[in-house]
């Protein structure tokens, strides 16, 4: 049965069609098969269009902007052909230059004391560096809190637990939940969103613990079954972990209870990994209300719109100085990105278009 036809069936119908498969299981045991039947596969997110730099000669190194000047220095001159030559001072005989070394050379010790200290990383860049390099999960969570609290549209951690609802079942999912708007446009109503963070190592540990606790008696046979099943589950989650989708659905359900009446709920999951200190993955989904109804009423046949895609985008930690900005850009909905872009050249395009439409008076 194709994924398209399975999406038109109720959850109970899917269970009857696949009696040999364990479909109603804990989210830690979800696989890509569950996502295909539910109609929520992983896809690669489209690339983010970067804002143009302020100047083609400006560079940024460790948070410090360096401007390269195109003007010649005071000690340079130009010949009539336009080539840059050394100054008249450098044309003096070498003997004159050697004789002035002792008299013109400054005191090295005094000069070292007057030098400015080397530029240090900004605060948000240090947070990104610690987030990338730390192996302690509590430290990583603290850095994520700091990165989201101190920005133009802050995201605050909430005490509300992340709970997945299925009929009368309530399954608590462990993650750091941030109830927030990823951005705020003064002229528009803020776009509601939820953000959560967790590390891949915590998912692996929780999955291992859950499987071990499910073994009633621990012996050589159950240990072998446990190792085999855990290996199969972990191997199937190498690209993207299906547990992330459960968190996205749980956050959308929480939004639906907090703000009923909406047709789509936009949610994000930030996933780091202690074994990968170079990048993290951002998962974004726009979950329709019809999909949530499919979980709330598993015996009803859902409409064709009861499906969504989970977009996965990789974001590098380095350069640390721009990590917070790139993280915010990845969370901004595409429909309002151009509103937020201060360097947008729409006005210039409209001006040139109007100029082309204007009749020539000359």
From TrEMBL:
Q: Where is the composition biased (Polar residues)?
A: 97-111
Task: Tell me the segments the record calls region Disordered.
Answer: 68-120, 339-362
Bias class Basic and acidic residues marks the residues at 73-82, 349-362
Query: What is the protein's given name?
Result: Uncharacterized protein
């Amino acid at each position: 049965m194709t994924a398209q036809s399975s999406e038109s069936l109720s959850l109970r119908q899917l269970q009857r069609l696949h009696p040999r498969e364990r479909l109603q299981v804990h989210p830690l045991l979800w696989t890509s098969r569950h996502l295909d039947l539910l109609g929520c596969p992983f896809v690669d997110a489209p690339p983010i269009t970067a804002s143009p730099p302020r100047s083609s000669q400006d560079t940024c190194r460790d948070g410090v902007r360096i401007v390269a000047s195109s003007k010649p220095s005071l000690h340079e001159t130009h010949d009539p052909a336009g080539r840059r030559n050394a100054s008249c001072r450098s044309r003096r005989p070498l003997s004159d230059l050697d004789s002035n070394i002792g008299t013109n050379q400054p005191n090295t010790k005094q000069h070292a004391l007057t030098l400015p200290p080397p530029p240090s990383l900004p605060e948000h860049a240090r947070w990104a560096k610690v987030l990338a390099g730390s192996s302690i999960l509590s430290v990583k969570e603290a850095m994520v809190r700091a990165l989201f609290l101190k920005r133009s549209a802050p995201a605050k951690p909430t005490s509300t637990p992340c709970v997945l609802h299925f009929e009368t079942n309530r399954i608590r999912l462990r993650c750091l939940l941030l109830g927030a708007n990823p951005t705020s446009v003064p002229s528009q109503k803020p776009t509601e969103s939820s953000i959560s963070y967790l590390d891949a190592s915590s998912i692996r540990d929780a999955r291992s613990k859950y499987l071990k606790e499910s073994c009633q008696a621990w012996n050589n046979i159950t240990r072998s079954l446990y190792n085999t099943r855990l290996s199969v589950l972990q191997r199937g989650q190498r690209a993207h972990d299906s547990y992330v989708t459960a968190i996205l659905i749980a956050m959308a359900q929480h939004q639906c209870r907090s703000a009923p009446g909406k047709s789509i709920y936009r949610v994000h999951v930030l996933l780091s990994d202690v074994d990968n200190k170079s990048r993290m993955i951002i998962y974004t989904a726009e979950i329709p209300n019809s999909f949530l109804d499919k979980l709330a009423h598993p015996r009803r046949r859902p409409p064709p719109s009861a499906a969504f895609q989970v977009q996965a985008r990789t974001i590098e930690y380095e350069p640390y100085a721009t990590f917070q900005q790139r993280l915010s850009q990845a969370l901004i909905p595409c429909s309002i990105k151009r509103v937020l872009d201060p360097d947008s050249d729409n006005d210039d395009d409209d001006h040139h278009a109007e100029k082309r439409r204007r009749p020539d008076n000359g």
